[in-house]
Structure formats: structure tokens, C-alpha cells
Amino acid sequence: MGEVVLRLEGITKNFGALKANENVSLNLAKGEVIALLGENGAGKTTLMNILFGQYTADSGRVEVFGKTLQPGMPRAALDAGVGMVHQHFTLAHNLSVIENVILGTGSLWSWKLRNKQARQQLLELANRYHLKINPDAKVSTLSVGERQRVEIIKALFRQAKILILDEPTAVLTPQETEALFKTLKEATEQGLSVIFISHKLREVMIIAQKVAILRHGKIVATKETKETSANELAALMVGNPTSPPAVVKRKSGPVVMEFLNVSTETQHHSKGLKNVSMRLCSGEIVGLAGVSGNGQTSIANLFAGLITPSEGELYLDGKPIERWSPRQSVLRGIARIPEDRHHAGTVADFSLTENSIIERYRDQPFAHHGWVNWQAAASFTKELIKQYDVRCPGPNTRIRLLSGGNMQKLILGRVLQNNPRVILAHQPSRGLDIGAVHYVHKQLLEARQKGAAIILISEDLDEILQLSDIIYVSSEGRLSPAFQRGKVTPSQLGGWMSGASFAEQETMHAS
Amino acid sequence: MRLEAIPHPSLSRRFLPPILALASTVFIASLLAMVAGGNPFAVLGLIIKGAVGSKFALLETLNRATPLIFTGLSVAVAFRAKLWNIGAEAQLYSGAVVAVIMGTGALAWSPSVLIPAMIICSMSAGALLLLIPTLLKTRLGVDEVVTTLLLNFIFLLLVSLLLEGPLKDPMGMGWPKSARLIAEARLPRIVDGLRLHWGFGIALIAAVIIWIVNTKTTFGYAMRAVGFNAEAARYAGMPINLIMMQTALLSGGLAALAGFSEVAGLKGTLTLDLSPGFGYSGIIVAMLALLHPLGVVGAALFVAGIFVGADSMSRAAGVPTYLADIMLATALLLMVVAVLLTKFRFKRE
User: Fold this and answer.
1) Among the listed residues B158, B22, B141, the one whose alpha carbon sits nearest the alpha carbon of residue B91
2) Average pLDDT of B2-7?
3) Is residue A21 part of a domain?
4) Which of A42, A80, A221, B237 has the fewest CB atoms nearer than 10 Å to its CB?
5) A54, B4: Cβ pair inside 8 Å?
6) Measured between CB atoms, does A347 come within 8 Å of chain B?
7) Number of H helices and number of E strands within chain B?
8) A311-316 and A255-263 as β-strands: parallel, antiparallel, unpaired?
9) Nearest CA to CA, how far is A400 from chain B (Å)?
């Protein structure tokens, strides 16, 4: 491969006691794609923020085209030809594509004039790299995939020779991902170098020539993709080979929770339910598939106690539930893993300790006559951190500083510690990387083994198919019949997800 | 430019911005003193001397700080739970009215019974007064900023009505003021011969109690949870509305204590100028204290010191007392920015 364009040397960065990066070194050659692979919290984003000047490293240096980059200066990185496409885009929604591209590239006085030159340049770039885009479209009207293209053009427009892409495919459809890869191939052939941050092994194997695996802030291996396999990378990434946890056969127990002809009102973002019946048995995972916004949130809210049925009944242990609220749901032994762990699941400005007692702050052993027993709370939290492998500086850390995976582990620990009878898992693995996903699945399967009745709501059909003993599909607030494990194909489920099979069912009934 | 959270702020990062804010306040005040024709060093010197320069000045500052501690605590408690109580002024007067009703001779009890009874009833009055806007908020979604603020004016008119009518001092020669409190209803001085009443002692005790409530009790924990993230609190099964109402009761009660202590400790009678805006100044105190109950004591002393110091400076140097208002406003604005800087830093994109 050609000359080295980017050299990271012995980068170390500590946040308090946490070693985010430890002596990381990396070389990127011209026209090369290096994938930076690692779990959540492995230090990928920290490393790239140091490279891009958002953080200053405690030690080590960054060299671009043979020159040491001034630390802590994003401007210096930009001028040296480093461009970054963040996971969350940094575009002005009310401006057009062309305005976004030239924004910040020069004085505002010659705006009109530059606009004209820039248009020429932008169309050239778009043409050269097959980035289809309308320069006059408002960013707010663009799809996520198109916005990403704008970000890439923005970087190329600023003469980026090195492009950093942070989890670029997380928000793309398969077709859009393919288009992105084509663009990257094109661009690297013309001399662009790319750092591709990801935890999707399949994509890394396709797009990258080299893979650097980051674990606990250290580079544990650098491999040529030609000489490795997805399995090997997965093993390196998490330290020990993780494979999806095995699903052990298990006879289901008695019915624990049952919905009988339940309907709910449509509220804000949650589609109301129409005459829904389902049952959860002990030792069984019930999967609920469906396109988002088709009543899943209402079902989750029913379990969590946030809403009550407008018609129909909920039964717990064969008895109808009369008083129903979040508090009742907690007291009746329902473990709730919310969809939105940042807003519903945790209080960002609370410490881990404060967050781990949030459901039980009024109960033994955490409360005594209105006083919080902080000692009990702290030891409970330390136990959770140890048992559920929550990576954090300590129990007094504010939870907002944790990665999504670690936050989810704390929530899991908090609700699973009491051997719950029913578990609501609403998108439990969304946004987590492979190691964390397997971990969540393992915990759910262990709870199933212990006899919990689990409802798993997910938009990821693979997840549903892999874990569930029984599968329902929701569409427009209706529920499909229950399917047994292995008795249904993905395309059949797809029919129910799109609503087509509901219509067929109705005509069959009618005839 | 954008703001970036600092995960682990260093010691200097935590203390330097607030110190710089205070320094800038002093600097701006000096400029204004110059504009007003005074020598800035002399003016500042006189303010400090006027606030803490003598036994008399110091006691005056402590007396002035007393109602500010109560209203500051009231606001700090409410704001912590994101209940925007702007109505401490009205709650203060409600406490004062109850003190007058009970303490002007209607009850012939001994002080050891009468004073605690007055404290409890004053607090109840303030608590109930804040409960109304809170119920409107939790039941109907009415913005409590508007209702609590407007209640201030309504309540002051009500006090005016009472002072012209049933509570009017028959010996007052027509002035709208209440009768004087009987001796049994007056708060005694902390030390004989020193002009400092027990209201100050009660205020300190209240601050410590609120601090303990906040950090050690389940109620304090729930209050903070609701304030930081009501959605998560609701999801976890906290009774949000109940917690809001309990917070309101506590906050309203604390503000009412300011009125009680001014009447029973200092003035001995109720007039329409009992409070020169202690309820509103309480917001400044609470914000300067970053809503910390113990910080409220320090902030109240600071604010009171500036008021008292500026009064005496004005007499000596001829610079208007408005300088005090400007200093406090500047301090508040700069402090809000400074607090931001202790947790965030600016980053150029």
C-alpha cells in the first residue's frame, strides 16, 4: 500500500479512573479503508474525538501527512485534511444542501459568489463519487441516507484526504448501505483514506482492507480482512468468543399473565389496541414482531402500568387486575426494560446508585421509615456492577457518562435481581453492539430458565425468531394468531407485518 | 461553537468561574459607582463596612438575611422539583397575616404554646396558598409561573383589604396597619441585648433540615428524581402528582415562615411594606446557591449584606442604593453563566 497519511502514536486518555484509550497506535495508508472495531465503551469514539481535536490526549500524538497535529483543535484537523461524519449529523435543517456545504468554509461576505463556484465544485464531486444529491433541496426534506451523503460531500468539499465515518450504516437501509460502499470504493481508488468505525462484522469484512480491534481502550489486534474471518473478529472484539446464547428446550409452565379482548385508546405516539388477546406462560418467551408504531408501545405500556385497558381485562395469575399503575406493576413483580433507556429508564443526572433503587426507593431494604438507606443502596449497586459487568468508574458516577450498553446492563440488573415473574423487554438490544446484545439475550434466556414469563417486543425479526417460543405480530393495533417456534417462516411473518394476512383472514371469516 | 459536557470537572474548573463571576460583578459595580460620581474603591469599601463593619451593621445584615433564607429555601425546594414557584411573596404575606390574627391578643396562651402554634398555622397558610396553583398545574396543566406570579398581586390586595378592614389597628390613627403583636407572640432575641431575633435561628435550623430531607429521605430523593426526569420517575412508579403537591406544601410553608418571622421577630406589626420583595429576592438567593439548602444561607447573607451595605454607602457617598439592585442582577446573570462553565466548555466546531 502507498504512503502513510495518518499516524496515531501511543494515544492515552483517561477519564478519572477509566482508561478510555491506552497507548493506541495506528497507521493509515493512502487509499486504504481501516475499520475500527470494538464494543460500546471500547474507546472508538474517544479515539476519533482525539484525532479530530475534540478531546486532548493525556499523552501520545497524531501525525497527518508527516506533520504533528496540534492537539485539541478541530480546525487544525480540518485544515490538515481530516473530515469526520458523525453518527448524529451536524447539518442545519433549515438550510439547503449547498448552503450546508459552504457553511463555515469562508467569510460570509462573498456568500453569493462562492455559492456559484461551490455549486460547480459540488456537482463535480457528486458526479465523481456517485453521490446523487440535489444541491438546492432543504436538508429537512432529505432522508437519513441523503443527509449522510451531504455530510460526506461536505467533508470532500473541504478537501478531506482522510474521512472518518462513525457508525455510518446504523441509520441506513440495506440498499443505502450498498450505495455508500460503492461510493467509498470509488473514493478510495482515487486516493481517499477512510477510517470506518463499526461493530457490524459483516460490513467490516466487505469494506475494509484492515481491521483494528479495540478492547477496553487498547488495540488488541490488527488484521488484514483477507486473512481473517467474522468469527475471529468477534472473538477478538469481546475478548472471548461469544456466540449467540443457545436456546435450551423447556416445557412452559402455567399461564402467568393474560390479556383478554383488550382495547386501548390511541395516545400521542402509541397506536391504540383493538381487541387483543394474548397469554404469557412461565418459562416462555413471547415475541412481538411488527413494524414500529403498530401498537407495540401500547402493549408495553400496559405491562408497565402506564395505561389501563379501555375495554377488556388483564389477568395476573388468573385473577383480573383491578388497580393498575407503574407502582402496582413493580409491586406485582413485573420487570420492566423500557424502550427508551435514556428517558424512561434512567435519570441522567442521578448516580448509578440513585438509579438502581429508583423502582424500590420506598421499599425494604432501601427505605426505613422514610429514610433512604444509602448504605444498602450502595452495596446493592456494587453488587449489580460486579454481577452484570457494568463498566464504570464507580457507583457514584452520574449515569449519563455511561455508554448505552452499560446503562442497559444496570437496568437489566436492577429489574432481574429480584427474580421477576414477568419480564417486559421492549427493544432491549437496540443500539447495542454484538457483545452487549448477546449478553442481554443470555440474561433473558436465563430468566426464562428460572421460570419467568417474558414478552419480547422488537423490530428486529432475527432477534424475535431466535429467542421466542411463541410469536405474535402486531399491525394497526391488531394481533396475529400465536405461532409456535419453528412453525413459521420470516416471509409469513412479513405478511402479517404488512397487514395483508389480516385482510385475508377477514375474507376467510366472511366467506 | 457548541457546548460540551465535561465528564470530570477539575477543582479549578468547579470554583474558578463562580469566583470570576463575583469579581466581574464587583468590577462592573465599580464602573457604575464611578459613573454616579463616587470613588469606586471608597464606594465598595463603604458597602463592605456598611454590611459587616460594625456589630450593629453585622446584626442588621443577619436580620435582613433571615427572610431571604426562608424564601430562598422555599424557591430552592420548589425549583429542585421543577415546580416554578414565583409566588413566595404572596406566601410570605399569608404567613404574616396568620401571625397577626393569632398574635394580637385573640389567644391568651403562654409563648411556649403560642409561638409553635403560630409557626404551624403560618406554614399551613403558605402551604395551602401554593397548593392551589399546584393543583391547577397537575390537574389542568395550567402554567404555575403565571398563576403563582399573579397570586402575588391578588394576595397583596387582599392584605390591603384586611388592613383597611378587620385587621386594622383601632389605635393606628387611620394608617393601614395591624395592631401590634402581644409580648407572648413575639420571637425573643437570641442573646439578650443583641438586636437579633430567633427567626434567624429558625432559618438556620430550617436550612439544615431541608438539606437532610433532600439527601437522606425518600421524599427528598423522589423530589429530585421528579425534577431531573419526571418521565423516568413516572415509569419507575413514583406518584408524581403527590410528590409535586408535597413539594408545594413544603415550599409554601417555608416562604410563609419569612412573613411570620418578620412580623413576630422584627416588626411586631403588619403593614403593606412588610416585604420589599423578599419573595422575588428569594429566587436570586436560590439561584446563587445553585438550589443547595446550605448554599442558600450563604447566598442570603451575601444578598442581605449588599442591600444593607448599599443603604449605608448611599448615605455616606451619595451614590444611589439602586447600585445594590444592579450588583445583585449582575451577580445573578454572571453566576448563571459561571455555573454553566463549571459543567460545560465551549468547543469550536
Assistant:
1) B158
2) 67
3) yes
4) A221
5) yes
6) yes
7) 13, 2
8) antiparallel
9) 9
β-strand partners of B345: B4
Residues A75 and A60 in one domain: yes
E-only strand ranges, A92-203: 162-166, 193-198
Cβ of B229 within 8 Å of Cβ of A347? The answer is: yes
Name the CATH code of domain B37-319 (choices 3.40.50, 3.90.930, 1.10.287, 1.10.3470): 1.10.3470
The stretch B115-120 carries a mean pLDDT of: 94
Structural domain boundaries of chain B?
37-319
Contact yes or no for A83/A158 (Cβ under 8 A) = yes
- Asked if A346's CB is within 8 angstroms of B232's CB, the reply is yes
Chain A contact for B116 (CB, 8 A cutoff): no
- Minimal CA–CA distance to A105: which of A47, A51, A44, A156? A156
**Neighboring chain B residues of A74 at a CB cutoff of 8 Å:** 347-349
- For residue A409, the enclosing domain spans 348-417
CA–CA separation, B128 and A146 (whole Å): 56
- Report CB contact under 8 Å: B349, A74: yes
Residue with cell 469484512: A205
The shortest C-alpha distance from B344 to chain A (Å) reads 13
Name the band, by pLDDT with cuts 50, 70 and 90, for residue A17.
low
Q: Is residue A246 part of a domain?
A: no
Of A15, A74, A359, the CB nearest to B236: A359
A329 touches chain B (CB under 8 A): yes
Report the number of distinct structural domains present in chain A: 3
Q: Tell me if the pTM is above 0.80.
A: no
Residues A160 and A300 in one domain: no
Residues A21 and A97 in one domain: yes
pLDDT exceeds cutoff 90 at A377: yes
Q: Are A160 and A21 found together in one domain?
A: yes
CATH value at residue A158: 3.40.50.300
Which of A178, A204, A238 lies at the terminal end of a domain, its last residue?
A: A238
DSSP assignment of B76-135 equals HHHHHTT-----HHHHHHHHHHHHHHHHTTT----HHHHHHHHHHHHHHHHHHHHHHHHH
Residues of chain B found within 8 Å of residue A401, distances taken between Cβ atoms: 7
Report CB contact under 8 Å: A348, B217: no
- Quote the minimal CA–CA distance from A25 to chain B in Å: 24
B10 touches chain A (CB under 8 A): no
Q: With an 8 Å Cβ cutoff, is A330 touching chain B?
A: yes
CB pairs under 8 A between A and B: 81
**Same domain, yes or no: A407 and A502:** no
CB contact under 8 A, A74 and B348: yes
Whether the CB of B1 is below 8 Å from some CB of chain A: the reply is: no
Q: Does any domain span residue A393?
A: yes
Confidence at B15, pLDDT banded by 50, 70, 90: confident
Residue A49 sits in the same domain as residue A195: yes
Over residues A455-504, the pLDDT tens digits come to 999 877 778 888 999 999 988 888 999 999 888 887 788 778 777 788 88
The C-alpha cell that represents B334 in the structure block: 454572571
Q: Would you place residue B91 in the very low, low, confident or very high pLDDT band (cuts 50, 70, 90)?
A: very high
CA distance B217 to chain A (A): 4
For residue range B211-255, what is the model confidence (pLDDT) as tens digits? 999 999 999 999 999 999 999 999 999 999 999 999 999 999 999
Question: pLDDT digit string (tens) for B41-61?
Answer: 888 888 899 888 888 899 999
Please check whether residues A379 and A452 belong to one and the same domain.
no
Residue of A73, A323, A332, A358 to mutate when probing chain B, most B C-beta within 10 A = A358
DSSP three-state, residue A312: strand
For residue A358, is it within any domain? yes
Residues of B in contact with A92 (CB under 8 A): none
CA distance B340 to A506: 60
Considering CB atoms only, which of B217, B232, B239 is closest to A344? B232
Query: What's the CA gap between B265 and B65, in Å, rounded?
Result: 13
